[in-house]
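A quick aside before the break. I want you to see a complete sequence-to-structure record at least once, exactly as it would be stored in a machine-readable document. Don't worry about memorizing anything.
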Amino acid sequence: MCWIANHNCSVLKLLGIYFILPFLDHAVTVDMRTISFDIAPQEILTKDSVTIMVDGVVYYRVWNAILSVANVLYMDPATRLLAQTTLRNVLGTKDLAQILSDREEIAQSMQITLDKATDDWGIKVELVEIKDVKLPQQLHRAMAAEAEASRDARAKVIAAEGEMNASKALQKAAAIICENPAALQLRYLQTLTTIAAEKNSTIIFPVPLDILHGLISPKQEPR
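That is the input. The structure line, written in tokens, reads:
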């Protein structure tokens, strides 16, 4: 805490014992601790013509008590109004995508702007944070539909890539089997083993075409 006396239109910082003349002097108490306040929700039109509601919080402290009394009347309300106008001015130059993704950079830009503007008032703006960004309900639905369409598109791409990889693997397997006929017989026996392990009541035995070809007489061979 700090005591300031307004004596004959001059501001003096009170140290030790000081006598105040009635009707001529008056003492002002200045809190030197960090003070925080909420920025009321502001309706802002973004650069891409979207109306949003944004609020925030500001932390500041008085670093020069004499300047805070001599250069500004009611420093706290003045700082609050300046924070509201700064929030509207800064966000009005940004697109909606930038506001949603670059909150830290926007808050830092606001902190620098506020700190520079209040320096003559003896005020140091320590931190600015954007608390909430409220979007119109129609925009919520549009963004949800866009996100769902994007997820569906990615799922289709992944499925297509999987089918392409599977077809390449089948093509390689077919080439290997064609080069080694014994591999087809081994695959045939492996398939029978798998079917038998499932305890099926009916088992269908596929017969290779080369076996049927040997059983067919030359007269019955198709032309």
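Two observations worth writing down. The beta strands are 2-7, 10-13, 25-30, 35-45, 51-62, 123-134. Residues 87 and 110 are 7 Å apart (CA to CA). We'll return to this after the break.
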